[in-house]
C-alpha cells in the first residue's frame, strides 16, 4: 500500500488543496472568512466560540454526509473505486443543494484498515468535495474512525471516566494529550483536520471527557446580531473503535451543563448529532414498512444501537428546546420517527464504502429564523429528492 499510485494521487490532491487554501488566505484579506452564494450567504466567525451567522432572512441549509468509509480495502482495485464513487455522490449533492454547512456524521474512514498516516490522507480526501467548494464543515467520529481497542464498559458507569494509565517515559507519546487519549487515533485525525483547514469548525472537545474527542457545540446566529443565536448544534462522540459504543454518563452531564450554560432558559432550538443510534431508536423503529407519523424510504435492517443507555435520552427528552437527533451507522435505514417531544432521524448512507447496495444520498436539514422552522429531506445521488418532513415550526 505504501507504494501504490493511488496513495500518491491522494497526496498530490492534498497538496493542491493546501496550496489553494494558502493562496485564498493571502489574497482574500477580510473576505477570506466570507462566502457569497446567492441568498445563502453567511459570515464565519473565528472567535473562540465559533458561530455561523445568517446574512439575510433566508434559510440555513446543512448537508449530512454519513458513513463514507474512505480507505476501505485500499490495497485492492475495488477500494479506490468506491472512494471515487463517494466523491461523485457528495459532488452531486453539493451542486444540487448548495448547502451553507456540511456535517460529516461519522465513519468518514475505515481506519482499522489503515495506518494512522494513511488514515489522515483518506480523511483529507473525504472532506475535499466540501472544501473545494468553499463550504465550511464540522465532523464527529463513528465506530470505524479509529482502530479497535477494548475498554471495559463498566469503567463508563458511575463517574463515567476510566482510570488513566499514562505512558512510560520511554513511550512515543508524551504530555497530557498522550495520557488522556491513550489507545486512540481520534485525536490525531481531528488535530490534522483543524490545523490544515481554516473552513473546519470541528473541535477536540474537553480532554477529560470519555469516550471520544468530538464533543462540542456550535452556534448558528441571527442575521441581525452575531451574538443572537437562532439554533445550537451539539456534537457527541458515540464511541466505537477504541471505546465502548456508548454515550457515557460523563458526556450526558457535559451536555446538560453546556446546554444550561449557553441556553439556560431553553429558548433557543437545539439540534443534536452523533453516529451510533441510542436504544430509543429501537423503541420508535417502524416494524415493517414506514408508516406515519414516521417518514422515510428504506427500512431494511434492525437498529444497531449503542451498548448501553447512560442518561442522554432522558436529558434530551426533558429539554423542550431539543428538536431532533440525527445519526448514521445503519446503512439500510433513513427514517425519521417521533420520540416524546422530539424527532429521532437517520441520515442516508452517502459513501460507497461499507456494507449495503442501497442507492446513496444525504439528508438535508433546513433552518429558517423568522419564524423558526426545521425541515428535512433526502437528496439522492441521481439528483431526486424524497422524504420531506417538518420537524419543528
From TrEMBL:
Domain Calcineurin-like phosphoesterase: 60-331
Keyword Metal-binding: no
Domain of life from the UniProt record: Eukaryota
Signal peptide per UniProt: 1-28
GO cellular component annotations of the record: cytoplasm
Gene3D superfamilies: 3.60.21.10
Alphabetized GO MF terms: hydrolase activity, acting on ester bonds
Keyword terms of this UniProt record: Signal
Name under which the protein is recorded: Calcineurin-like phosphoesterase domain-containing protein
Organism: Tetracentron sinense
Amino acid at each position: 500500500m505504501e507504494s501504490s499510485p493511488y496513495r500518491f494521487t491522494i497526496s498530490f490532491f492534498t497538496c493542491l488543496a493546501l496550496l489553494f487554501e494558502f493562496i485564498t488566505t493571502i489574497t482574500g484579506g477580510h473576505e477570506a472568512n466570507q462566502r457569497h452564494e446567492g441568498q445563502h450567504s453567511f459570515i464565519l466567525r473565528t472567535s473562540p466560540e465559533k458561530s455561523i451567522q445568517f446574512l439575510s432572512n433566508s434559510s440555513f441549509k446543512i448537508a449530512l454526509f454519513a458513513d463514507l468509509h474512505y480507505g476501505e480495502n485500499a490495497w485492492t482495485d475495488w477500494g479506490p473505486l468506491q472512494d471515487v464513487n463517494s466523491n461523485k455522490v457528495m459532488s452531486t449533492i453539493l451542486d444540487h443543494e448548495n448547502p451553507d454547512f456540511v456535517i460529516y456524521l461519522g465513519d468518514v474512514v475505515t481506519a482499522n484498515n489503515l495506518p494512522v498516516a494513511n488514515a489522515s490522507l483518506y480523511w483529507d480526501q473525504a472532506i475535499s468535495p466540501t472544501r473545494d467548494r468553499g463550504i465550511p464543515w464540522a465532523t464527529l467520529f463513528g465506530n470505524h474512525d479509529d482502530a479497535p481497542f477494548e475498554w471495559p464498559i463498566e469503567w463508563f458507569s458511575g463517574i463515567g471516566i476510566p482510570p488513566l494509565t499514562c505512558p512510560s517515559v520511554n513511550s512515543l507519546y508524551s504530555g497530557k494529550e498522550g495520557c488522556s487519549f491513550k489507545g486512540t487515533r481520534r485525536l490525531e485525525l481531528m488535530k490534522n483536520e483543524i490545523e490544515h483547514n481554516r473552513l473546519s469548525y470541528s473541535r477536540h472537545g474537553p480532554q477529560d471527557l470519555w469516550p471520544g474527542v468530538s464533543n462540542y457545540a456550535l452556534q448558528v446566529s441571527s442575521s441581525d446580531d452575531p451574538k443572537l443565536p437562532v439554533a445550537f448544534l451539539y456534537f457527541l462522540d458515540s464511541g466505537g473503535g477504541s471505546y465502548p459504543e456508548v454515550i457515557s454518563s460523563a458526556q450526558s452531564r457535559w451536555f446538560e451543563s453546556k446546554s444550561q450554560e449557553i441556553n439556560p432558559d431553553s429558548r433557543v432550538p437545539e439540534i443534536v448529532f452523533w453516529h451510533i443510534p441510542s436504544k430509543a431508536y429501537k423503541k420508535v423503529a417502524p416494524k415493517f414498512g414506514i408508516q406515519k407519523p414516521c417518514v422515510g424510504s428504506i427500512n431494511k435492517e434492525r437498529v444497531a444501537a449503542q451498548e448501553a443507555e447512560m442518561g442522554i435520552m432522558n436529558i434530551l427528552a426533558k429539554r423542550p428546546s431539543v428538536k431532533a437527533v440525527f445519526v448514521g451507522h445503519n446503512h439500510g435505514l433513513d427514517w425519521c420517527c417521533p420520540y416524546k417531544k422530539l424527532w429521532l432521524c437517520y441520515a442516508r448512507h452517502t459513501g460507497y464504502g461499507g456494507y449495503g447496495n442501497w442507492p446513496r444520498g444525504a439528508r438535508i436539514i433546513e433552518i429558517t429564523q423568522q419564524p423558526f422552522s426545521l425541515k428535512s429531506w433526502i437528496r439522492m445521488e441521481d439528483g431526486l429528492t424524497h422524504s420531506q418532513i417538518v420537524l419543528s415550526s
